Amino acid sequence: MTTSDLVLPTRGGAAPDRRTSSVLSDTGNVWLRETLTIVRDPFSLIFSLLQPLIFLGLFGPLLSGFTGGQDLGGVSPLQWFLPGVVVMITMFGTSMTGSNLQYEIMTGAFERILATPLSRPALMIGRALKELTPLVVQGLIICAVAAPFGFVIHPLGILLGLLLLGVFGVGIGALSYSLAIAARKNEWVFWAVQQTLLFPLLILSGMMLPLEAGPGWMRLASQFNPLTYVVEAERALFAGVLADPSVLWGFVAAFVTAAIGLVVGVRTVTRSIF
Amino acid sequence: MIHTEALTRTFRSGKDTVEAVRGIDLDVAEGELVAFLGPNGAGKSTTLRMLTSLLPPTSGTALVAGTDVVADPAGVRRRIGYIGQKDGAGHSYRVGDELVMQGRFYGLSKSESVERGRQLMASLDLAGMENRKVSTLSGGQKRRLDIALGLIHEPPLLFLDEPSTGMDPQNRANLWEHILRLRAERGTTIVLTTHYLEEADTMAERVVVIDHGRIIADDTAEALKAEQAGDHLWLSVPAEDADAAVQVLARAGEQLERTPAAGTVGLRYRVAHGTGTLPRLVLALHDRGVTVAEASVRRPTLDDVFLNLTGRSLREGGPALTTTTEGQPA
C-alpha cells in the first residue's frame, strides 16, 4: 500500500480489506500497549524490582536461622527458597492483572478495545504477559544477587522455569481478568477475593515454609492446589534437574490453569455488558 | 449497510426476565445518518451493542456492513467504528500511543497508524498533542480523541453511543461540526443513540424512535412532527366568548387544553398547518363576535411526537435541552 492510498477516504460500503489478525499478533499488540505504561514511566519498574530483593534479604537470613546456618544436604537453603520467591512474585504480579483492567473498565478504554477486532484470548494473554515482563527481569536479578551467597545458577533450568511460570501466569492473569469483570460494579470485591484466595494458595503450596512438617490436612489440601506442582517443578528446574517427574506435573498444572483461565475469561468477556 | 430481522435481547435479573429489545426490524442504507431516540432504558444502547457485535442477540439476525454479527463478530468489528459513552482513550496513556496502538489493533502497520493518527489529530484540532497524557486533556479534547480512535481504520460505518452526553452546548456544537465534516469527506454511514431531542432533530436525517425495546416510529424528523404531532395553536379569548370560540375551533383541530385565567380562557389546539390556519381562524372568530386577545403557533418538537406516540414525555427522565418555542405566553 502506498502513501497516497492511505489518504484516500474509504467510501461507504467498501469494507476495508484488512489482513485477518492472528491471536499471536493480537497478543503482541495488547502486550505492547500495556507495556507502554512501563516504558513511558519506568519508575514503577524500579520499585517493583526492589520488592523481591527485600523478600530475599529479609527472609534469607531467617531461613539460615532455621537450618542452624547449615546447608541442606550440601546445597544452600537459598536453592530451596529462591524458586519459591520467584513463584510468589509471579502470583502477586499476575493476580493483579485485573486491577489495571478495572480502571480501564471504569474510564471506558476497555469498551473501546472490545469493539476492535482483537481476538478475545489475546486481550487477556497480552495483559498477563505484561505483568510477567518485569518478572523476567526480577527473576534474573534475584538469581544474580543470590549467586554470591551460595545459590547455584543453572541457566537452562531457570529459562524453563520462567517459561513454566509464563504459562501458569497467563492462567492466573486470565482468572484475575475475569474477576475484575465480574466485580466491575464493586471494585472492592476484586481485592477482597484476590486477597482471600492468594494467601491460602501461597501457603498451601509449600512456597514459603515446607509442608512436610505440617498437619495431614494441609498436606492433603496442597495436593489439590495447582500451585504446589508449579512450585515443586520450579525447585527441580532451578536446581538444574530437568528430567524430574515434578517438572512434567508442573507443566501439566500450568497448562490446565491457563486453559481454564482462558475459557473462563473469554466466557466472561462475551457475556458481560459494560 | 445494516439489515436486522426480529432482533431481540433479554436479560435475566434474578428470577425476572427483562426484555430489553423486543424485535427490531431495521434497514439502514449506505451514507445515512440515523439517530436512535428514546428515553433511558428504552433499549437503544442494547440494540447498538448487538449491532456492534459486543453483545450477542437472544434471537433474530443482524447483517452489519455485509457481515453477520453472530457468525463473524470480529469481521463486523473490523468493518465498523464504535465510539462509546465513556472515554475511549486510556487515561494513563499518551495520546499518540493510543492512536497508534488503535491502528495496530485494526491490523494497520505502524507507519500507516502513525500517518493516519497524525492526519486525524490535525483535522480534529488535536495537532501537537501526541505526547500529552490523556488524563490531562479537557472533556472536549477527550471526545475528539474518541472520534479519532473510532476513525483510525476509516470504517464505512460509524456507531456513536450518546456522543454528546455531559458536554456543554459549545463543545457539543464543535463535536458535531467535526462529525458532519468527516462524514461529508468520507461518506461514512453514521448511526447514533441520543436522548437529546434537539440533537436528533437537527443532526439526524432519520430518527428511529425506540421505546420499551421496540421501534415505534421511523422517519425524518420533519415527517414525524407533521404526522405525529401537528402544530400547536394557542389562543386567548374573553371568558364569556369561550364557548362560541370552541364551536368555531372544533372544525380546525383537536382540543388539547382549556385553561381559564383572569377574565380570559386559554385554548390549545392541535392543527395541521398552524401558521396558515391561524389568520383564517382569527377572522372566523371575529365574524362570530369573538375577539382574540392573544395567539401563537408553536412548531411541534420530537418530544410532542414521543408524547403523542407513548403518552409520556421524553423530558421526564433525564436532562434534555429546551427547544425554542415561538412566542408562547407563559
Automatic annotation (TrEMBL), chain A:
PROSITE patterns: ABC_TM2. It is a multi-pass membrane protein. Residues 1-20 are annotated as: Disordered. Pfam families: ABC2_membrane. One of its GO terms (molecular function) is ABC-type transporter activity. Its main location: membrane. GO terms for cellular component: ATP-binding cassette (ABC) transporter complex. The chain crosses the membrane at residues 43-66, 78-96, 132-153, 159-181, 188-209, 247-266. GO terms for biological process: response to antibiotic. InterPro entries: ABC2_TM, ABC2_TM_bact-type, ABC_2_transport, Nod_factor_ABC_transporter. It is found in: Cell membrane; Membrane. Coiled coil: none annotated. Belongs to the ABC-2 integral membrane protein family. This is Transport permease protein. It comes from Desertihabitans brevis.
Automatic annotation (TrEMBL), chain B:
Pfam families: ABC_tran (PF00005). Keywords: Antibiotic resistance, ATP-binding, Nucleotide-binding, Transport. It is a peripheral membrane protein. Residues 2-237 form the ABC transporter domain. The keyword Nucleus does not apply. Its main location: membrane. One of its GO terms (cellular component) is plasma membrane. It is found in: Cell membrane. GO terms for biological process: response to antibiotic. SUPFAM superfamilies: P-loop containing nucleoside triphosphate hydrolases (SSF52540). GO terms for molecular function: ATP binding; ATP hydrolysis activity. This is ABC transporter ATP-binding protein. It comes from Desertihabitans brevis.
